[in-house]
Write a structure and sequence with these properties.
The chain is mostly helical and 174 residues long. The chain is 69% helix and 0% strand. Helix 4 crosses helix 5 and helix 5 packs parallel to helix 8.
Length: 174
């Protein structure tokens, strides 16, 4: 921030020096434009100092170039889903529901839509809160998405479907 203030002051002094040695309105307009540009640059620089809303991804750019594109896409999807519940529910949750339905179908012979009561019993009440087909979605984009621990619990509940040893205590806690 200090460098921004010094830069704006130096630019102002230079523009004022320019005005002293000139006469006319063109120079005044130029001075105003220079001050406006300096302020815009200072504001823009200040915005970049704030914490980015884009989550940090696990893989570096170099590592990502060697990974399968679908894995990189999924990592980004998980990262963005953690920043907003809106993104989680509309982008990541449908994929997790598909995975849960596939596991339920393989192990038990039904999906969440086929037999909701049995599906709720298998995945547990907390995970079922997210998987249920009639769940109302969040419309507010400012609601934060699930934490890493909440996502981990939810994924663990889906993984336990396959082993047929689901624990109702696992899942997504609100």
């Amino acid at each position: 921030m200090r460098s921004i203030v010094i830069g704006v002051l130096l630019l102002t002094v230079a523009a004022l020096g320019f005005l002293v040695f000139s006469d006319g309105t063109v120079e005044i307009v130029g001075f105003e434009v220079l001050i406006l540009v300096a302020l815009l640059m200072a504001l823009r620089k200040g915005d970049s100092d704030r914490r980015s809303i884009v989550p940090e991804f696990q893989f570096s750019r170099r590592q990502r170039s060697r990974l399968p594109p679908r894995l990189v896409d999924f990592e980004q999807l998980v990262g963005f889903s953690r920043t907003a519940m809106f993104d989680f529910e509309r982008r990541l949750l449908p994929k997790l529901r598909d995975i849960a339905d596939a596991r339920l179908l393989d192990v038990h012979g039904f999906t969440t839509r086929d037999d909701p009561e049995r599906a709720a019993a298998v995945v547990g009440p907390v995970a079922w809160n997210l998987l249920r087909p009639d769940r109302r979605l969040v419309d507010d984009v400012s609601v934060p998405g699930p934490s890493e621990q909440e996502l981990d619990g939810f994924v663990t509940a889906i993984e336990l479907i396959e082993s047929d040893s689901s624990d109702p205590g696992l899942g997504f806690a609100r």
